[in-house]
Amino acid sequence: MQTFSGTDELVIREWYRQGERGLRKIRSEADLFQCLHMPNVSLLWAVFYLAAFAHAQTFNEETSIADSCRHLTEAEWSKQDDSFPEILDEMNYNCGDSATSKETDPYTLQSNLLYNLLEPAVISSGQCPDRSKGTNADLKALLRELYPVMVMNVATNNVLGGKIDRFLKLTQGYTYPAVGGGVINSVEYVENQQMPSVQEYISSIPSLLAGDATLPKPIGADTKVFVVDFKAPAPKTQAAFFFFATELLNPCMWSTDSDFLQSEYKPGNDKLTAPCYGCMAHRGFLRAFHSITNTSDPKYDIAAAWTTKTGVAVEEVTSVLCSGFSLGAALATLCGPWAQATFPNAKVQVVTAGSPRVFNPAAASWYDANVEYNYRLVNNKDIVPSLPLQTWGLLKYKHVGMPIFLDRRGENLPGEYVAFRGERPEWYTGSLTDHVMGYILGMKQAMTCTMHASV
Protein backbone atom coordinates (compact mmCIF):
# COMPACT_ATOMS: atom_id res chain seq x y z
CA MET A 1 0.00 0.00 0.00
CA GLN A 2 1.08 3.57 -0.48
CA THR A 3 3.03 5.02 2.43
CA PHE A 4 2.15 8.50 3.68
CA SER A 5 4.44 10.50 5.97
CA GLY A 6 3.40 13.45 8.10
CA THR A 7 5.21 16.76 7.62
CA ASP A 8 3.78 18.76 10.50
CA GLU A 9 3.75 17.58 14.11
CA LEU A 10 0.57 19.56 14.72
CA VAL A 11 -1.39 18.08 11.82
CA ILE A 12 -3.38 15.06 12.89
CA ARG A 13 -1.96 11.82 11.58
CA GLU A 14 -4.70 9.56 10.32
CA TRP A 15 -5.21 6.25 11.97
CA TYR A 16 -3.37 4.09 9.44
CA ARG A 17 -0.37 6.41 9.18
CA GLN A 18 0.11 6.38 12.94
CA GLY A 19 0.37 2.62 12.99
CA GLU A 20 2.89 2.55 10.14
CA ARG A 21 5.13 5.21 11.67
CA GLY A 22 5.23 3.45 15.03
CA LEU A 23 6.18 0.14 13.44
CA ARG A 24 9.16 1.57 11.57
CA LYS A 25 10.84 2.23 14.91
CA ILE A 26 10.84 -1.48 15.73
CA ARG A 27 13.08 -3.60 13.52
CA SER A 28 15.14 -5.95 15.69
CA GLU A 29 14.15 -9.55 15.00
CA ALA A 30 14.99 -10.57 18.55
CA ASP A 31 12.88 -7.80 20.03
CA LEU A 32 10.01 -8.69 17.74
CA PHE A 33 10.15 -12.33 18.74
CA GLN A 34 10.00 -11.26 22.38
CA CYS A 35 7.02 -9.04 21.65
CA LEU A 36 5.34 -12.00 20.01
CA HIS A 37 5.79 -13.97 23.25
CA MET A 38 2.48 -13.38 25.01
CA PRO A 39 3.74 -12.86 28.61
CA ASN A 40 5.71 -9.91 27.29
CA VAL A 41 2.53 -8.52 25.77
CA SER A 42 1.23 -8.37 29.34
CA LEU A 43 4.26 -6.30 30.27
CA LEU A 44 3.60 -4.01 27.30
CA TRP A 45 0.05 -3.34 28.51
CA ALA A 46 1.38 -2.65 32.00
CA VAL A 47 3.74 -0.04 30.54
CA PHE A 48 0.86 1.59 28.68
CA TYR A 49 -1.14 1.72 31.91
CA LEU A 50 1.70 3.30 33.86
CA ALA A 51 2.20 5.88 31.11
CA ALA A 52 -1.49 6.76 31.17
CA PHE A 53 -1.45 6.97 34.98
CA ALA A 54 1.61 9.23 34.92
CA HIS A 55 -0.11 11.46 32.39
CA ALA A 56 -3.17 11.70 34.65
CA GLN A 57 -1.05 13.15 37.41
CA THR A 58 -0.26 16.22 35.29
CA PHE A 59 -3.86 17.41 35.47
CA ASN A 60 -5.56 19.24 38.32
CA GLU A 61 -9.07 20.30 39.21
CA GLU A 62 -8.79 23.39 37.06
CA THR A 63 -8.12 21.32 33.94
CA SER A 64 -10.97 21.54 31.46
CA ILE A 65 -12.67 18.25 30.70
CA ALA A 66 -12.69 19.24 27.04
CA ASP A 67 -8.90 19.63 26.99
CA SER A 68 -7.81 16.87 29.34
CA CYS A 69 -7.58 14.03 26.81
CA ARG A 70 -6.74 15.90 23.63
CA HIS A 71 -3.24 16.37 22.35
CA LEU A 72 -4.29 19.05 19.82
CA THR A 73 -6.16 22.33 20.21
CA GLU A 74 -9.33 23.19 18.31
CA ALA A 75 -7.27 25.27 15.89
CA GLU A 76 -4.91 22.35 15.33
CA TRP A 77 -7.83 19.97 14.75
CA SER A 78 -9.03 22.29 11.99
CA LYS A 79 -5.77 21.85 10.07
CA GLN A 80 -6.87 18.42 8.87
CA ASP A 81 -7.02 18.39 5.10
CA ASP A 82 -9.34 16.36 2.88
CA SER A 83 -6.75 13.82 1.74
CA PHE A 84 -7.45 10.31 2.98
CA PRO A 85 -4.83 7.70 3.77
CA GLU A 86 -4.59 4.05 2.81
CA ILE A 87 -8.31 3.52 3.31
CA LEU A 88 -8.83 4.75 -0.26
CA ASP A 89 -6.17 2.37 -1.58
CA GLU A 90 -8.00 -0.51 0.05
CA MET A 91 -11.43 0.62 -1.08
CA ASN A 92 -10.19 1.10 -4.67
CA TYR A 93 -8.33 -2.22 -4.84
CA ASN A 94 -8.96 -4.42 -7.89
CA CYS A 95 -8.17 -8.13 -8.02
CA GLY A 96 -4.64 -8.63 -9.30
CA ASP A 97 -3.26 -5.25 -8.23
CA SER A 98 0.34 -5.59 -7.11
CA ALA A 99 1.80 -4.35 -3.86
CA THR A 100 2.89 -0.73 -3.82
CA SER A 101 4.67 -0.86 -0.47
CA LYS A 102 8.35 -1.84 -0.61
CA GLU A 103 8.62 -2.28 3.15
CA THR A 104 8.23 -5.66 4.80
CA ASP A 105 6.52 -5.72 8.16
CA PRO A 106 8.89 -7.83 10.28
CA TYR A 107 5.94 -9.01 12.39
CA THR A 108 4.44 -10.49 9.23
CA LEU A 109 7.77 -12.03 8.20
CA GLN A 110 8.17 -13.61 11.64
CA SER A 111 4.67 -15.02 11.62
CA ASN A 112 4.86 -16.25 8.00
CA LEU A 113 8.05 -18.17 8.74
CA LEU A 114 6.39 -19.79 11.72
CA TYR A 115 3.20 -20.46 9.79
CA ASN A 116 4.99 -22.07 6.83
CA LEU A 117 6.94 -24.27 9.21
CA LEU A 118 3.90 -25.49 11.11
CA GLU A 119 1.23 -25.33 8.40
CA PRO A 120 1.20 -29.05 7.37
CA ALA A 121 0.86 -30.26 10.97
CA VAL A 122 -1.70 -27.61 11.84
CA ILE A 123 -3.87 -28.38 8.80
CA SER A 124 -3.75 -32.12 9.49
CA SER A 125 -4.82 -31.47 13.09
CA GLY A 126 -7.86 -29.52 11.90
CA GLN A 127 -6.71 -26.38 13.70
CA CYS A 128 -6.23 -24.35 10.53
CA PRO A 129 -8.60 -24.09 7.52
CA ASP A 130 -7.53 -25.30 4.09
CA ARG A 131 -6.98 -22.30 1.81
CA SER A 132 -7.20 -24.40 -1.35
CA LYS A 133 -11.00 -24.29 -1.16
CA GLY A 134 -11.09 -20.49 -1.22
CA THR A 135 -13.81 -18.45 0.45
CA ASN A 136 -17.13 -20.25 0.87
CA ALA A 137 -19.95 -18.85 -1.32
CA ASP A 138 -22.24 -18.23 1.66
CA LEU A 139 -19.46 -16.39 3.47
CA LYS A 140 -18.82 -14.27 0.38
CA ALA A 141 -22.47 -13.23 0.44
CA LEU A 142 -22.22 -12.32 4.13
CA LEU A 143 -19.04 -10.31 3.54
CA ARG A 144 -20.79 -8.35 0.78
CA GLU A 145 -23.50 -7.45 3.27
CA LEU A 146 -21.03 -6.48 5.99
CA TYR A 147 -18.58 -4.63 3.73
CA PRO A 148 -20.40 -1.24 3.87
CA VAL A 149 -20.34 -1.47 7.67
CA MET A 150 -16.58 -2.00 7.59
CA VAL A 151 -16.15 1.07 5.37
CA MET A 152 -18.23 3.13 7.81
CA ASN A 153 -16.26 1.61 10.67
CA VAL A 154 -12.82 2.45 9.32
CA ALA A 155 -14.05 5.85 8.15
CA THR A 156 -15.01 6.59 11.75
CA ASN A 157 -11.38 6.12 12.72
CA ASN A 158 -10.08 8.42 9.99
CA VAL A 159 -11.83 11.49 11.40
CA LEU A 160 -10.04 11.91 14.70
CA GLY A 161 -11.39 15.41 15.16
CA GLY A 162 -14.95 14.12 14.94
CA LYS A 163 -15.33 15.94 11.62
CA ILE A 164 -18.62 14.64 10.29
CA ASP A 165 -18.10 16.00 6.77
CA ARG A 166 -15.00 13.81 6.36
CA PHE A 167 -16.92 10.77 7.58
CA LEU A 168 -19.75 11.45 5.13
CA LYS A 169 -17.29 11.90 2.26
CA LEU A 170 -15.68 8.51 2.91
CA THR A 171 -19.02 6.70 3.28
CA GLN A 172 -20.83 8.45 0.44
CA GLY A 173 -22.95 6.05 -1.59
CA TYR A 174 -22.57 3.05 0.71
CA THR A 175 -25.80 1.36 1.74
CA TYR A 176 -26.31 -1.30 4.37
CA PRO A 177 -28.99 -3.90 3.52
CA ALA A 178 -29.65 -4.79 7.16
CA VAL A 179 -30.97 -1.26 7.82
CA GLY A 180 -33.18 -1.10 4.75
CA GLY A 181 -30.59 -0.19 2.15
CA GLY A 182 -30.51 3.54 2.77
CA VAL A 183 -27.36 5.67 2.77
CA ILE A 184 -26.38 7.66 5.85
CA ASN A 185 -28.68 10.61 6.43
CA SER A 186 -27.15 12.50 9.35
CA VAL A 187 -24.54 12.04 12.06
CA GLU A 188 -24.38 13.24 15.66
CA TYR A 189 -20.98 13.23 17.38
CA VAL A 190 -21.09 12.21 21.05
CA GLU A 191 -17.99 12.41 23.22
CA ASN A 192 -17.54 12.12 26.96
CA GLN A 193 -14.03 12.87 28.25
CA GLN A 194 -13.36 12.21 31.89
CA MET A 195 -10.09 12.77 33.71
CA PRO A 196 -10.01 12.96 37.51
CA SER A 197 -7.64 15.13 39.46
CA VAL A 198 -4.97 13.55 41.67
CA GLN A 199 -7.15 14.12 44.74
CA GLU A 200 -10.14 12.48 43.08
CA TYR A 201 -8.01 9.57 42.00
CA ILE A 202 -6.69 8.95 45.52
CA SER A 203 -10.15 9.20 47.08
CA SER A 204 -11.58 6.74 44.54
CA ILE A 205 -9.04 3.96 45.21
CA PRO A 206 -11.31 2.04 47.67
CA SER A 207 -14.15 1.99 45.15
CA LEU A 208 -11.79 0.98 42.35
CA LEU A 209 -10.49 -1.95 44.36
CA ALA A 210 -14.07 -2.95 45.12
CA GLY A 211 -14.78 -3.20 41.38
CA ASP A 212 -17.29 -0.35 41.17
CA ALA A 213 -17.86 0.09 37.42
CA THR A 214 -20.28 3.01 37.75
CA LEU A 215 -17.93 5.66 39.10
CA PRO A 216 -18.91 9.08 37.72
CA LYS A 217 -15.29 9.78 36.76
CA PRO A 218 -13.40 6.71 35.58
CA ILE A 219 -9.65 7.01 35.26
CA GLY A 220 -8.87 8.50 31.88
CA ALA A 221 -11.93 7.68 29.79
CA ASP A 222 -12.49 9.36 26.44
CA THR A 223 -15.38 7.69 24.65
CA LYS A 224 -16.40 8.83 21.18
CA VAL A 225 -19.38 7.69 19.12
CA PHE A 226 -21.09 8.60 15.86
CA VAL A 227 -24.88 8.33 16.22
CA VAL A 228 -26.29 7.70 12.74
CA ASP A 229 -29.65 7.52 10.99
CA PHE A 230 -30.34 6.58 7.38
CA LYS A 231 -32.20 7.94 4.35
CA ALA A 232 -35.05 6.22 2.53
CA PRO A 233 -35.66 3.48 1.56
CA ALA A 234 -34.47 2.73 5.10
CA PRO A 235 -37.19 3.72 7.58
CA LYS A 236 -36.42 6.51 10.01
CA THR A 237 -36.57 3.96 12.83
CA GLN A 238 -33.15 2.47 11.94
CA ALA A 239 -30.35 3.52 14.31
CA ALA A 240 -26.61 2.92 14.18
CA PHE A 241 -23.80 3.60 16.63
CA PHE A 242 -20.17 3.65 15.44
CA PHE A 243 -17.64 3.62 18.29
CA PHE A 244 -14.15 5.14 17.89
CA ALA A 245 -10.93 3.17 18.28
CA THR A 246 -7.99 4.14 20.48
CA GLU A 247 -6.10 7.18 19.24
CA LEU A 248 -2.34 6.77 19.37
CA LEU A 249 -1.67 9.98 21.33
CA ASN A 250 -4.73 9.91 23.58
CA PRO A 251 -3.71 8.78 27.10
CA CYS A 252 -7.32 8.55 28.28
CA MET A 253 -8.10 5.87 25.72
CA TRP A 254 -4.93 3.94 26.54
CA SER A 255 -5.93 4.09 30.20
CA THR A 256 -9.29 2.53 29.29
CA ASP A 257 -7.58 -0.24 27.29
CA SER A 258 -5.12 -1.13 30.01
CA ASP A 259 -7.58 -1.29 32.92
CA PHE A 260 -8.03 -5.02 32.29
CA LEU A 261 -9.31 -6.01 35.75
CA GLN A 262 -12.89 -7.24 35.76
CA SER A 263 -16.10 -5.80 37.20
CA GLU A 264 -19.52 -7.34 37.61
CA TYR A 265 -21.43 -7.25 34.34
CA LYS A 266 -25.18 -6.70 34.30
CA PRO A 267 -26.36 -6.93 30.67
CA GLY A 268 -28.68 -4.07 29.83
CA ASN A 269 -28.30 -2.78 33.40
CA ASP A 270 -30.46 -5.68 34.62
CA LYS A 271 -33.33 -4.65 32.32
CA LEU A 272 -33.16 -7.90 30.33
CA THR A 273 -35.12 -10.95 31.41
CA ALA A 274 -32.30 -13.48 30.99
CA PRO A 275 -30.14 -13.35 34.15
CA CYS A 276 -26.37 -13.45 33.86
CA TYR A 277 -24.85 -15.30 36.82
CA GLY A 278 -21.15 -14.87 37.59
CA CYS A 279 -20.75 -12.50 34.67
CA MET A 280 -17.74 -10.19 34.59
CA ALA A 281 -16.40 -7.74 32.00
CA HIS A 282 -13.22 -5.76 31.32
CA ARG A 283 -13.42 -2.88 33.80
CA GLY A 284 -11.98 -0.19 31.55
CA PHE A 285 -14.31 -1.01 28.66
CA LEU A 286 -17.31 -1.18 30.98
CA ARG A 287 -16.60 2.19 32.57
CA ALA A 288 -16.04 3.83 29.20
CA PHE A 289 -19.33 2.44 27.90
CA HIS A 290 -21.21 3.56 31.00
CA SER A 291 -19.88 7.08 30.47
CA ILE A 292 -22.00 7.45 27.31
CA THR A 293 -25.06 5.45 28.41
CA ASN A 294 -25.69 6.29 32.09
CA THR A 295 -26.76 9.91 31.65
CA SER A 296 -29.74 11.68 30.10
CA ASP A 297 -27.81 14.54 28.51
CA PRO A 298 -27.81 14.20 24.68
CA LYS A 299 -24.36 15.74 24.63
CA TYR A 300 -22.96 12.70 26.44
CA ASP A 301 -25.58 9.93 26.17
CA ILE A 302 -26.00 8.10 22.86
CA ALA A 303 -29.67 7.09 23.39
CA ALA A 304 -30.60 10.67 24.33
CA ALA A 305 -28.62 11.93 21.34
CA TRP A 306 -30.58 9.59 19.06
CA THR A 307 -34.03 10.66 20.28
CA THR A 308 -33.08 14.35 20.29
CA LYS A 309 -31.63 14.18 16.77
CA THR A 310 -34.36 12.12 15.12
CA GLY A 311 -37.44 12.67 17.25
CA VAL A 312 -37.95 8.89 17.23
CA ALA A 313 -38.75 7.39 20.62
CA VAL A 314 -36.72 4.39 21.76
CA GLU A 315 -39.85 2.21 21.67
CA GLU A 316 -40.34 3.01 17.98
CA VAL A 317 -36.84 1.96 16.85
CA THR A 318 -36.99 -1.23 14.77
CA SER A 319 -33.30 -1.91 14.08
CA VAL A 320 -30.00 -1.03 15.79
CA LEU A 321 -26.47 -1.52 14.49
CA CYS A 322 -23.59 -1.42 17.00
CA SER A 323 -20.21 -1.35 15.28
CA GLY A 324 -16.61 -0.49 16.06
CA PHE A 325 -12.96 -1.27 15.56
CA SER A 326 -10.37 -2.09 18.27
CA LEU A 327 -11.44 -0.23 21.44
CA GLY A 328 -14.56 0.71 19.49
CA ALA A 329 -15.20 -2.99 18.87
CA ALA A 330 -15.16 -3.70 22.60
CA LEU A 331 -17.61 -0.87 23.21
CA ALA A 332 -19.82 -2.01 20.31
CA THR A 333 -19.88 -5.48 21.88
CA LEU A 334 -21.17 -3.98 25.12
CA CYS A 335 -23.63 -1.99 23.05
CA GLY A 336 -25.47 -5.16 21.96
CA PRO A 337 -27.27 -6.08 25.22
CA TRP A 338 -27.63 -2.40 26.12
CA ALA A 339 -29.43 -1.78 22.81
CA GLN A 340 -31.72 -4.77 23.41
CA ALA A 341 -32.76 -3.25 26.74
CA THR A 342 -32.90 0.38 25.56
CA PHE A 343 -34.71 -0.25 22.26
CA PRO A 344 -37.02 -3.11 23.30
CA ASN A 345 -38.68 -3.56 19.90
CA ALA A 346 -35.54 -3.43 17.76
CA LYS A 347 -33.50 -6.12 16.04
CA VAL A 348 -29.94 -5.59 17.25
CA GLN A 349 -26.87 -6.44 15.18
CA VAL A 350 -23.25 -6.19 16.33
CA VAL A 351 -20.44 -5.98 13.76
CA THR A 352 -16.87 -5.55 14.99
CA ALA A 353 -13.30 -5.75 13.70
CA GLY A 354 -10.03 -6.18 15.59
CA SER A 355 -11.85 -6.62 18.88
CA PRO A 356 -10.05 -7.41 22.13
CA ARG A 357 -11.66 -9.85 24.53
CA VAL A 358 -14.33 -8.25 26.73
CA PHE A 359 -15.93 -10.92 28.95
CA ASN A 360 -15.17 -13.75 31.31
CA PRO A 361 -16.42 -17.22 30.18
CA ALA A 362 -19.75 -16.91 32.04
CA ALA A 363 -20.57 -13.56 30.45
CA ALA A 364 -19.38 -14.78 27.04
CA SER A 365 -21.70 -17.79 27.23
CA TRP A 366 -24.61 -15.56 28.21
CA TYR A 367 -23.80 -13.15 25.40
CA ASP A 368 -23.68 -15.77 22.66
CA ALA A 369 -26.97 -17.25 23.89
CA ASN A 370 -28.78 -13.90 23.91
CA VAL A 371 -27.23 -11.73 21.16
CA GLU A 372 -28.10 -13.49 17.92
CA TYR A 373 -26.53 -11.25 15.28
CA ASN A 374 -22.90 -10.71 16.21
CA TYR A 375 -20.09 -10.85 13.63
CA ARG A 376 -16.44 -10.39 14.67
CA LEU A 377 -13.78 -9.97 11.97
CA VAL A 378 -10.12 -10.79 12.61
CA ASN A 379 -7.46 -9.74 10.10
CA ASN A 380 -4.61 -12.20 9.61
CA LYS A 381 -2.15 -11.90 12.53
CA ASP A 382 -3.73 -8.85 14.20
CA ILE A 383 -2.39 -8.88 17.76
CA VAL A 384 -5.30 -7.07 19.47
CA PRO A 385 -7.79 -10.00 19.30
CA SER A 386 -5.25 -11.95 21.37
CA LEU A 387 -5.64 -9.42 24.22
CA PRO A 388 -6.33 -9.58 27.08
CA LEU A 389 -4.89 -13.06 27.40
CA GLN A 390 -7.41 -15.88 27.85
CA THR A 391 -5.85 -16.58 31.24
CA TRP A 392 -4.25 -13.75 33.17
CA GLY A 393 -3.61 -14.97 36.69
CA LEU A 394 -7.05 -15.46 38.24
CA LEU A 395 -8.73 -13.56 35.38
CA LYS A 396 -10.29 -15.47 32.50
CA TYR A 397 -11.31 -13.92 29.20
CA LYS A 398 -13.25 -15.32 26.25
CA HIS A 399 -14.35 -13.95 22.86
CA VAL A 400 -17.97 -13.70 21.75
CA GLY A 401 -19.75 -13.70 18.41
CA MET A 402 -19.21 -15.49 15.12
CA PRO A 403 -15.55 -15.03 14.15
CA ILE A 404 -14.63 -14.38 10.53
CA PHE A 405 -10.92 -14.98 9.95
CA LEU A 406 -9.30 -13.05 7.06
CA ASP A 407 -6.22 -15.14 6.26
CA ARG A 408 -3.54 -13.55 4.07
CA ARG A 409 -0.56 -14.98 2.19
CA GLY A 410 2.21 -12.57 1.25
CA GLU A 411 4.50 -10.40 3.32
CA ASN A 412 3.38 -7.14 1.70
CA LEU A 413 -0.11 -5.80 1.14
CA PRO A 414 -2.24 -6.48 -0.78
CA GLY A 415 -1.19 -10.14 -0.45
CA GLU A 416 -3.80 -12.81 -1.16
CA TYR A 417 -6.74 -13.21 1.21
CA VAL A 418 -9.16 -16.06 1.89
CA ALA A 419 -11.89 -15.78 4.54
CA PHE A 420 -13.11 -18.51 6.89
CA ARG A 421 -15.77 -18.86 9.55
CA GLY A 422 -14.22 -19.73 12.87
CA GLU A 423 -11.34 -18.79 15.13
CA ARG A 424 -7.80 -18.54 13.80
CA PRO A 425 -5.07 -20.71 15.40
CA GLU A 426 -4.17 -19.26 18.81
CA TRP A 427 -0.48 -18.85 17.96
CA TYR A 428 -1.25 -16.99 14.72
CA THR A 429 -0.85 -13.45 16.07
CA GLY A 430 1.69 -10.72 16.79
CA SER A 431 1.24 -8.07 14.09
CA LEU A 432 0.38 -4.44 14.76
CA THR A 433 0.33 -3.71 11.03
CA ASP A 434 -2.46 -6.25 10.58
CA HIS A 435 -4.40 -4.34 13.21
CA VAL A 436 -4.30 -0.99 11.42
CA MET A 437 -4.20 -2.12 7.80
CA GLY A 438 -5.94 -4.79 5.76
CA TYR A 439 -9.48 -5.19 7.07
CA ILE A 440 -11.20 -3.54 4.12
CA LEU A 441 -8.69 -5.02 1.69
CA GLY A 442 -9.10 -8.52 3.13
CA MET A 443 -12.88 -8.38 2.93
CA LYS A 444 -12.80 -7.04 -0.60
CA GLN A 445 -10.41 -9.73 -1.81
CA ALA A 446 -12.24 -12.55 -0.05
CA MET A 447 -15.62 -11.61 -1.49
CA THR A 448 -14.52 -10.72 -5.05
CA CYS A 449 -11.20 -12.38 -5.91
CA THR A 450 -10.42 -16.07 -6.66
CA MET A 451 -7.48 -17.45 -4.72
CA HIS A 452 -5.82 -20.69 -5.75
CA ALA A 453 -4.46 -23.66 -3.89
CA SER A 454 -0.89 -22.55 -4.46
CA VAL A 455 -1.23 -19.38 -2.37
Automatic annotation (TrEMBL):
Give the lineage. Eukaryota, Viridiplantae, Chlorophyta, core chlorophytes, Trebouxiophyceae
The record, for CDD domains, names: Lipase_3
Q: Name one Pfam family in it.
A: Lipase_3
The name under which this protein is listed is Fungal lipase-type domain-containing protein
Species of the source: Coccomyxa subellipsoidea
Q: Which residue numbers delimit the Fungal lipase-type domain?
A: 250-390
Which Gene3D superfamilies does this chain map to?
alpha/beta hydrolase (3.40.50.1820)
